[in-house]
Specification:
alpha/beta; 7-stranded parallel β-sheet; two-stranded parallel ribbon; 10 helices; 40% helix; globular
């Protein structure tokens, strides 16, 4: 198939593109290479994709309406994996307009491209952050998600609503994937695994929010990609059992689905830090701080719907995933010091 991967220079985008290329698909990747974090990391990720003959990269902003229209008109995509977005819960408190431009305007541009060019299936990144103020765990797709606690979360919930509208009006199969705390090699430098690892290795204190009283459903990148690809391969369908008098938020009479992708094993933040310390062979100096605005104390996934739909259940053990991340982190930074080209 010919597949568009948006956010191809991103963490999940690069890994997803690699997987699709490895199985023989043609991939066109787009990204705006913004400076939310060091663009060199994004270019290094693209260097991992560049040797593939079936990969092409186009630098393009999702909010560029005319550019996205041309892209769909010229390329004739069979399916779309939409992973591009302005990421980060905390940054949404500082720069809300970036989230409107990328996550709302950009998403409707993608939906319009799918609508006008007969795309067979749109798979897009939602987020566990949509569960917001929910306190019942594990989080289920059948739960209401009407109380976001950050603008980032609100934009992701809006994406699900927008996708449903296009599925209903135009019959476009859409599948939203709520990712839970993704980590692994080539991860983002604004997330805890990178922040903690760099601080520990440099002898700086790590910032531990909510005084360490946090649970996170850390999900290894390979499990995320497996869920993405398997979902892509099974386009969303109308739910024959859908009951409008007792609606299921995760399905519809339209070809629309929403799934969690998480490890189903929430880990205390202090246990995650201990796993990093073990992998690094060094103890962290910890600075305990209150909860940050926009954050939540617990994330916990119910992935039974994903398993039933795709036959896949994430399950990479935390210690194994952390070791792989630390090994990559050391190698990457040594290579950067030596100016290695990927």
């Amino acid at each position: 198939m010919k597949i568009l991967v948006t956010g191809a220079a991103g963490f999940i985008g690069m890994h997803t593109a690699q997987r699709l290329l490895a199985r023989g698909d043609e991939v066109v990747g787009i990204d705006n290479l913004n400076d939310y974090y060091d663009p060199r990391l994004k270019r290094d990720r693209l260097d991992r994709l560049a040797p593939h003959a079936r990969f092409r990269f186009i630098e393009l902003d999702l909010a560029d309406r005319a550019g996205i229209e041309r892209l769909f008109a010229e390329e004739g995509f069979h399916r779309v994996v939409h992973l591009g977005a302005q990421a980060g819960v905390r940054y949404s408190l500082q720069n809300p307009h970036a989230y409107v431009d990328s996550n709302l305007v950009g998403f409707v541009n993608i939906l319009e491209g799918c609508r006008h060019h007969r795309v067979e299936h749109l798979v897009y990144a939602s987020s566990s952050s949509v569960y917001g103020g929910n306190e019942k765990t594990p989080f289920s797709e059948q739960d209401a998600v009407d109380h976001p606690v950050s603008l980032y979360a609100a934009t992701k919930k809006a994406n699900e609503l927008m996708a449903h509208t296009y599925s209903h009006l135009y019959g476009i199969p859409t599948t939203g994937l709520r990712f839970f705390t993704v980590y692994g090699p080539w991860g983002r430098p604004d997330m805890a695994p990178w922040l903690f690892t760099s601080a520990i290795l440099e002898g700086r204190p790590i910032k531990v929010f909510n005084h360490g009283q946090m649970l996170r459903d850390f999900t290894y990148i390979d499990d995320i990609v497996e869920g993405v690809v398997r979902s892509l391969d099974r386009p969303a369908e109308p739910d024959a059992g859908y009951d409008g008098k007792a609606p299921n938020p995760a399905t519809s009479r339209a070809p629309y689905r929403v799934f969690n992708i998480g490890n189903q094993a929430p880990v205390p933040l202090m246990d995650f830090i201990a796993a990093l310390e073990a992998a690094l062979g060094k103890t962290a100096e910890k600075e305990f701080l209150p909860m940050q605005a926009g954050d939540v104390p617990v994330t916990s996934s119910d992935v039974s719907a994903l398993t039933a739909w795709t036959g896949f259940t994430p399950g990479t053990p935390l210690a194994e995933g952390v070791e792989r991340f630390v090994e990559w982190y050391r190698e990457y930074h040594v290579d950067r010091q030596n100016n290695t080209t990927y």
